[in-house]
Design brief:
alpha/beta; 4-stranded mixed beta sheet; 9 helices; globular
């Protein structure tokens, strides 16, 4: 018994935010250098009344243009932009999509490692014989958490949703072994402090200045960029080697590496540490930016359009939590 990624579809939010637009908002910053270093030219943000759920519905409907929604046995919904604290957004999604009621549905709150966690969870559900078709949905609207004066984060993050169909197969296994990592001591390196149970939303929260041309309040997203960068480069390269070894392969056996698309500078730094050719290391940030849990499925969809044979891929997610995970997959053609 095996399983495989059968299809992926994605959508961006409709409002295109260019570097030229941001240049007007932050005239003292050189966005041409930013584009060259970080690799982001455009990102897309939702309207004020549009949510991650709205994007998720669009991505799923796009997927169901070619696949039967009534074959879905389980919905895994990864987001840090839920519709409500409760109920579970996955349950609302089941109803909105008109999927049968005899399914499982759950949310899980992970960011940049969310997709790789989701693929592994889907594998567990299928390999245990409980289900045959899992709908893995990732959806994020970090733009809603960004302070208007936070130039760094407004430059990086975009809104998107992706829908992945993972299915049972009578043929060989196309989803390999996965590994995981967690360091909760770094929980405050990427955080929205106010608005939940520990600290309520505070309309009078003071503005905090950090870095250069950046500010936020505790109601907004804060990211300690240098610490996140250091964590990533300390952990991810060796972790990637461990994933490859766990699957009884060597780095030379891997056709393509698809990491969370955080920023091009960080990705190339890790690529060089791993001594991987740029031809075998997919980077796709120019149009869309960092869409958190959606970057890997979007990259996989785009990469799949470039191949016509079976390809062995290592996928690795890392970020908020601090959390990281990754594993091996194989795809044969356009997803």
């Amino acid at each position: 018994m095996g399983m495989f990624i059968k299809a992926i579809e994605y959508v961006y939010a409709k409002n295109k935010i260019t570097n030229n637009y941001l240049q007007k908002r932050f005239p003292d910053y050189d966005f041409s250098k930013f584009e060259e270093k970080v690799g982001i030219k455009n990102r897309y943000w939702v309207d004020e009344n549009e949510t991650a759920f709205d994007l998720a519905v669009k991505a799923c409907e796009k997927l169901f243009q070619n696949h039967d929604r009534q074959e879905i046995d389980y919905i895994l919904y990864c987001t840090q932009s839920p519709e409500y604290f409760l109920p579970t957004t996955a349950c609302i999604l089941q109803n909105k999509l008109g999927i049968k009621k005899s399914i499982g549905a759950l949310d899980f709150n992970l960011g940049c490692s969310g997709y790789t966690y989701g693929v592994s969870l889907a594998k567990g559900l299928i390999s245990s014989g409980q289900v045959k078709n899992v709908l893995l949905v990732t959806a994020e609207t970090y733009s809603k958490y960004l302070h208007p004066n936070d130039r760094s984060n407004r430059s990086i993050f975009g809104d998107a949703a992706a829908a992945t169909l993972i299915s049972y197969s009578n043929e060989e296994e196309n989803i390999g072994n996965f590994l995981f990592g967690t360091d909760g001591s770094g929980y405050d390196k990427l955080i929205v402090k106010n608005g939940c149970s520990r600290f309520r939303y505070d309309p009078d929260s003071p503005e905090i200045i950090y870095g250069t041309d950046n500010s936020y309040t505790d109601n907004h997203l804060y990211m300690n960029g240098p610490d996140v960068f250091n964590f990533t480069n300390e952990v991810v390269p060796n972790f990637t080697k461990e994933i490859v070894e766990l699957n009884n392969l060597s780095l030379d056996n891997i056709d393509q590496f698809v990491f969370h698309q955080a920023n091009a500078y960080m990705l190339n730094f890790m690529r060089k540490r791993l001594k991987i050719s740029s031809d075998n290391f997919f980077i796709d940030l120019e149009d869309g930016g960092n869409t958190v849990s959606c970057t890997i499925p979007i990259a996989l969809k785009k990469y799949s359009e470039l191949i016509n044979k079976e390809t062995t891929i290592i996928i690795v997610g890392f970020g908020v939590g601090l959390s990281w995970s990754g594993g091996l997959i194989k795809i044969k053609s356009k997803l």
